[in-house]
Design brief:
Layout: H1 17-20, H2 44-56, H3 64-70, H4 75-86, H5 90-108, H6 113-119, H7 125-136, H8 140-147
């Protein structure tokens, strides 16, 4: 078994001779084939780190590089492996998570839609409304009316 396939990944070291010279006689796989450890997506630990980072920073502006760094993987591999692991791109996952949290906030009671948008990291209320409508089929105000219980004055 090749020891270099199971060694910890170090992003600051140059590739091994075999990785850049496909004509090496003992090379069984094509150069572009991913090692077996990547064929099933992120490791459980890397996925847990990424999801934890997203949960902690859901209301903040963060980049793909930030989440990839939390998972200890280069951003170039992270997006592909995240999709294999979750069935969604990192951005699709973050937006779905933000909209799910928005639904919870909107059904809790009266609050400004702009406050919900700001608390979940949307650039402005317009961006939030467009994204919410695209993902749910309703505007945030329509969603509130449909899912907030009506109280009658006695």
């Amino acid at each position: 078994m090749d020891a270099h396939l199971h060694a910890p990944c170090r992003l600051d070291t140059p590739p091994a001779f075999d990785d850049v010279h496909p004509a090496a006689p003992h090379r069984d796989l094509p150069v572009h084939a991913a090692p077996a450890r990547y064929s099933r997506g992120l490791s459980e630990r890397a996925l847990a780190r990424a999801l934890h980072y997203i949960d902690r920073h859901i209301g903040d502006a963060f980049s793909l590089a930030d989440v990839a760094g939390a998972a200890c993987i280069s951003r170039f591999h992270f997006a592909r492996l995240f999709r294999i692991s979750t069935g969604q791109s990192p951005m699709e996952y973050v937006l779905a998570k933000r909209i799910a949290l928005a639904k919870e906030q909107l059904t809790r009671g009266p609050q400004k839609i702009s406050a919900t948008a700001a608390s979940l990291g949307f650039f402005d209320q317009s961006h939030f409304t467009r994204t919410f409508r695209r993902m749910t089929g309703y505007s945030p105000r329509e969603f509130c009316r449909l899912h907030t219980p009506v109280t009658r004055a006695a």
